[in-house]
Amino acid sequence: MKDPLLCVHNLTKTFSGCGSPVIRDVSFCVYPGEVLTLVGPSGCGKTTTLRTIMGFEHADRGEVKHGDEVLQSGVKFVPPEQRKIGFVFQDYALFPHLSVLQNVMFGIRGVPRARKRAIATEVLWMIGLAGLEDRRPHDLSGGQQQRVALARAIAPGSRVVLLDEPFSSLDPDTRHTIRGEVRMLAERAKMAVVLVTHDQEEALSTADRLAVMRDGVIEQIGPPEFVYNHPANRFVAQFLGRTNLIECRAEGGVGDTPLGKIDLGREVDGAVTLSLRPEHLELHKPIEGRPVGKVIAREFKGHDMTYHVRLGSAEYLVQTDAGCGFKVGDEATLCPRMPAAIVDDSGAGPVKNVRLPLA
Ligand code: ATP
C-alpha cells in the first residue's frame, strides 16, 4: 500500500457568529493517482473542507498533512501559499489581463523566468492547450479556461490538487471530457485530487472513492460502486440516486417484505430498513404464489425505462431496458436481482469507511 499524499484528521471548523461547527471531525486520506470526490447537498460543508485544507480558513482543531509535512495542527499553521497544494475555483479565477502562459507562470516560484516559461509551456501542452499560450482568458471557451485554471494549479509542482465544483458552468460534453482528463492527469502524474461536487452522477463517475457529506459530517466513504450498492444509511441511499426503501422484519438473513422474501446477503434478525435500487428489481408477469402489483406509470428515458408499480399501499420503482413491454394497468411481480442493502438496523450496519486497495 502506498503512503497517502494528503491526510485530513478530525478537521473541525466553526465560523465566528455561528454556534456550531460547519464541518465536524472530517477525516480522510488521498493516495497518489487517486481522485476522491466530496459530494453532498448545498451547504453541507464541502467548500469549507477544501478551504480549510488549503489554509484559507483556520480550523478549530484537527490535522492536515501533505505527505509527512504537517500543514495544520493544534500548534502549527502553514499559510496557503506555502502549502504546495493546487486549488481550482468554480469560476476559474484567472487574471483577465494576463495571457494564458502568464496565468500559468504566475504561481511558479523560486526559479528563473525562463524556467517558469518552460514549465508553464510543458504543463499547457500536457493539458491540451499548446498553441493558446498568448490568448487572454476571455478569448477562450469555458472548457479551455477551466483547463488553464487546472494548469495553473499544477504548474508549481503541486501533487495535491483541490477542485471546487470546477465543471459546474460547463456544457455536458465539455464536462464529461474534462472529468476524464482530470482522472488521466491524476493517474499519469500520480497526483492526489479532491473534487467537490453536488452532482451525484459526476461524483460516482469520476471518483476512485467518494465521500458523502451531510451537515458537516462524512456519512460514508468508499469506492463508488460500494457506496452506491451498500449505502450506510437512508440519507446516503437516497442522495446517490433513486431507491426503494422497505421496512420489514428479518430472520436469519432473509427479509420478510411486501415483495416476498428477500435475501439480505448477511445474517441479521429484527427490524430493518432495506434499500433496493430500481435497477436491482426485475419486472415479471404475475408469478403464482408471489405478491402481484399493478403498473401505474412508466417513464421512457431513451436508454431505459422506469416503471412505477403499486403493491399494497406502497409504490415501487423498477428500471428495465427500454424495450420492456409492460404497459400501465398491467399486473406484475417484482423480483430482486441481488441481495438488498440494509440501511438501518439495530445491529452492525454496513462497513462505513472503506479504503480503495491500491497496487
Ligand atoms: P455548496 O454546494 O452550496 O457550495 P457547500 O457544501 O460547499 O455548499 P459550504 O460553502 O462549505 O457548503 O458552507 C457550509 C456552511 O457554512 C453553510 O451553512 C454556509 O452558509 C456556512 N458558511 C460558509 N462560509 C461561511 C462564512 N465565511 N461565514 C459564516 N458561515 C459560512
- Measured on Cα atoms, how large is the radius of gyration? 24 Å
The dominant shape is: elongated
CATH topology descriptor of the largest domain: Rossmann fold
Distance between the termini: 7 Å
Physical arrangement of strands within the biggest beta sheet: 6-7-8-3-9-10
- Helix and strand string, N-terminal first? EEEHEEEHHHEHEHEEHHEEEEEEEEEE
Find the count of extended strands (DSSP E, 2+ residues): 20
Structure explained in plain terms:
It is a single chain. With 359 residues, the protein is of the alpha+beta class. It has two domains: 6-235, P-loop containing nucleotide triphosphate hydrolases (Rossmann fold, 3-Layer(aba) Sandwich), CATH 3.40.50.300; 242-343, Nucleic acid-binding proteins (OB fold (Dihydrolipoamide Acetyltransferase, E2P), Beta Barrel). 22% of the residues lie in helices and 33% in strands. The protein has a six-stranded mixed beta sheet, with helices on both faces. β16 and β17 (304-311) form a beta hairpin. Adenosine-5'-triphosphate (ATP) binds next to α1. Adenosine-5'-triphosphate is lined by residues 15, 18, 22, 40, 42-48, 198.
